[in-house]
Amino acid sequence: MKSLVLAEKPSVARDLARVLGCNQKHKSYIEGNQYVVTWALGHLIELKMPEHYDKRYQTWNLEDLPIIPDHMGLKVIKQTSHQYKAVEQLLNRNDINEVIIATDAGREGELVARWILEKSKSRKPIKRLWISSQTDKAIRDGFKQLKPGKQYEALYHSAVCRAEADWLIGLNVSRALTTKYKDPLSAGRVQTPTLAMMIERENEINKFVPKEYWTLQASVGPLTAEWEHNGEKRIFSKEKAEEIQAKIPAQKAILKSVDRKKKTDQQPMPYDLTELQRDANKRFGFSAKKTLNVLQGLYEQHKLVTYPRTDSRYLTTDMEATMADRLQGIASGYKDEVRPALNQKGKVLARRVFNNEKVTDHHAIIPTEERLHLGDLSPDERRLYDLVVRRFLALFYPAYEYETIHAIFEVNGETLSARETNILDLGYKKVLGKDDDDSKAKQNLGQLSKGQAYNVSSASTTKKLTEPPLRFSEADILAKMEKYGLGTPATRAEIIERLITSEAVERQNGRLFPTKKGKQLIDLVNDELTSPELTAKWEKELEQIARGNGNPKVFKEKIRKQTAQLVSEIKASDKSYRAHNLTGSKCPECGSFLKERKTKEGRILVCSSMDCGFRKHKDPKLSQRRCPQCHKRMEIHNGKAGVYFQCRPCNIVEKADEKKKAVSKREERKLAQKYSPEESAFGTSLGDLLKAALEDKK
Q1: Considering the domain boundaries, does residue 152 fall inside one?
Q2: How far apart are CA 644 and CA 10, in angstroms?
Q3: 202 shares a domain with 217
């Protein structure tokens, strides 16, 4: 008899099969003497859509809402049905006596596998492979310590509750808003409060009134000091600033106190996903989604880092024995940094990192013992890997020790202060880098003694304006989402991208700007849905269910009641909405006004009528071909001689096929598909469920 191993992706399945000695390759699986390894393609199963319960739901009508099935059914995703059928056949083989779930070790990974088993009505015993890295050693060790499937049933129930909640609330509220206000409007239990936080910041910026203030600097003997009063260095009166400036020069400054403090900064903990996304955004401008994608490659393809979708920054105590091997793995690229750690036999100095109670499903993101070959990594992979490695190496270095000195002078009734920082032991900053403050000129405040007098040779003021708060960067909004428990480390990046693709938010120069559509949407959506606290409460309940301490049935019933209430409120609302992108042009087919939309392929015009499907490109369509001179994407055109490409800034024109004078209509269509591919996605998240439907409404 054999075990069927179900992986989430073909690439992971191939690695598992190789380690398990399976070498008989088939189209949909790889077989060996003991194991048969197959795979999903992301999700193979999803929740049924409304039209699968009743065909009348194919047309969106406000009167039909809310749509709340008594029991939510499953369906095979059409695009990957071939792979599902292959897995189903394997599950029914007489020589398969058990299933080993080897999908990603998390809530969504559990859902991928369990829905396949439920849809296929498989009753075979289940075991679970639960590993945090994809190295050969981790896989071998994992198969020696397979867990009983029953141990993860609570995690599966939590995943089902999350999926059904997103379906019920997101789909019903989005349909209600879209049909009532006749414009594609998307809302959800996580994306809406996230948008609300951005709108709140935008309101703060708009209400902000700048105020003038002055700061004062004075030369006190060989030192530079600043005016200060009760910790405030700003003077909000021009007259007062001028008065202080006039009374200080040519006076004696008496040193009233010198406060010296020795301080210690402990080594920073390794990264969890959200913290890594924040740092990558600050350092490299990476979006949260890009960080996750690059990190996934380092995990799956290169096997250089541990499981990415973690919310823990701690390690388990049994991992201490693996530290030396991990150091040896990274040594080829970090020889000088690794040497001190290896000299102390891989002993971790930051002992607090080992804490079993603070490790949830997965420990922090750290390097694996896999041998590093830097040449195999892309520039982006190198940057991200460098962050992970240096944060890991900091654990083996001593704490950063420094001394702060604060000198306070009294001059003619006014207070001047000077500060400086002196490094005592650079510690872990040898691998992380110094603070900006470390490079400032030293004033040798430590040589001062109380009661000394100094001449004040000059004083000057600088006029400034108070500044409004900045719009959120992705690092900022990720921190806010984490604070309120909005989403999970695995879903936060997708939430941000969904707000952008739904045109509620724009990304400009690394900052997130709410659009006119987003601002109106927050006014229209239910107040309850905009509250981060409510959504955080739901996430906490899902976490309790995952740990076996919550009741899935009670949660689902609560969500159903909530859905009915939210739809009822939208139906009764007397608020109005005007599409932000309406133009003065009318649709040639139905006479309704056209709307202008920005897409990856340029601007397009679409009919504002929900019943009309007219659309056309306003700008020339952009191809995937790059200009040989400026490397920007070239426009794609259909001329008398067929398809050609043009870069307007460089005035470069290229034929689609230099070898042929003309191309057939069929070849033109192929070229258009090749150079302007349509993005397709499928899955079970709310964004996936609503994306296609909302696109049709546009």
Answers
A1: no
A2: 37
A3: no
Residues 313, 356, single domain; the answer is: yes
Spell out the residues 6+ positions from residue 276 whose beta carbon is closer than 8 angstroms to its own.
291, 295, 365, 384, 387, 388
Domain co-membership, 261 together with 410: yes
Asked if residue 92 belongs to a domain, the reply is yes
Rounded to whole angstroms, the Cα distance separating 662 from 101 reads 53
How many other C-beta atoms are found inside a 10 Å radius of the C-beta of residue 29? Answer: 22
Q: How far apart are CA 574 and CA 594, in angstroms?
A: 25
Alpha-carbon torsion (371, 376, 377, 382), positive or negative: positive
The one-letter code for the residue type at 1 is M
Please answer whether residues 39 and 9 qualify as being in contact, where contact means their C-beta atoms are separated by less than 8 angstroms.
yes
Domain range for residue 371? 273-396
The yes-or-no answer on residue 213 being catalytic is no
Q: Beta 223-227 vs 414-425: how paired, if at all?
A: antiparallel
Q: Would you say 38 and 86 are in contact if contact means Cβ atoms under 8 Å apart? A: yes
Going from the first residue of the chain to its last (698 residues), give the mean pLDDT of each consecutive group of 10, the final group possibly shorter.
96 94 96 97 94 95 96 96 97 97 92 97 96 90 96 96 95 96 91 96 97 97 94 96 95 94 97 97 96 95 94 93 95 95 92 92 93 95 97 97 95 95 94 62 80 94 96 97 90 94 93 96 94 88 94 96 96 91 82 78 77 76 84 80 82 69 50 43 45 52
Query: pTM, whole model, 2 decimals?
Result: 0.83
Boundary-marking domain end, from 345, 365, 396 = 396
Q: Helix and strand tally (H, E) in the chain? A: 22, 25
Q: Is the peptide bond before 552 cis (omega within 30 degrees of 0)?
A: no
One-letter amino acid at 102 equals A
Query: The domain spanning residue 368 has which CATH number?
Result: 1.10.290.10
CA distance 425 to 429: 9
Same domain, 453 and 347: no
Q: Are residues 515 and 614 in the same domain?
A: no
CB atoms within 10 A of CB 14: 16
Last residue of a domain, one of 523, 542, 572: 572
What is residue 637's predicted lDDT score, i.e. its pLDDT? 79
Residue 137 and residue 47 in one domain = yes
Answer yes or no: are the C-beta atoms of 223 and 454 closer than 8 Å: yes
For residue 502, give the DSSP letter: T
Tally of domains within the chain: 5
Q: What burial class does residue 423 get, using C-beta atoms within 10 Å of its C-beta: 0-12 exposed, 13-18 middle, 19+ buried?
A: middle
Question: What is residue 22's predicted lDDT score, i.e. its pLDDT?
Answer: 97
CB of 106 closer than 8 Å to CB of 279: no
Same domain assignment for residues 103 and 14: yes
Query: 359 with 258, same domain?
Result: no
DSSP code of residue 171: I
* pLDDT of amino acid 662: 42
Which is the catalytic residue, given 307, 400, 484, 675? 307
**E strands of 327-452, at which residues?**
400-411, 414-425
- Residue 50 covered by a domain: yes
Q: What is the pLDDT of residue 30?
A: 98
Tell me the CATH number at 220: 2.70.20.10
Q: What is the pLDDT of residues 314-371, one digit of tens each?
A: 999 989 999 999 999 999 999 999 999 999 888 999 999 999 989 877 899 999 999 9
Q: Which phi-psi region, left, alpha or beta, contains residue 683 (left: φ > 0; alpha: ψ -120 to 50)?
A: left
Rg of the chain in Å (alpha carbons) = 31
CATH number of the domain where residue 521 is located: 1.10.460.10
Tokens 């490409």 sit on residue: 645
**Does residue 439 form part of some domain?**
yes
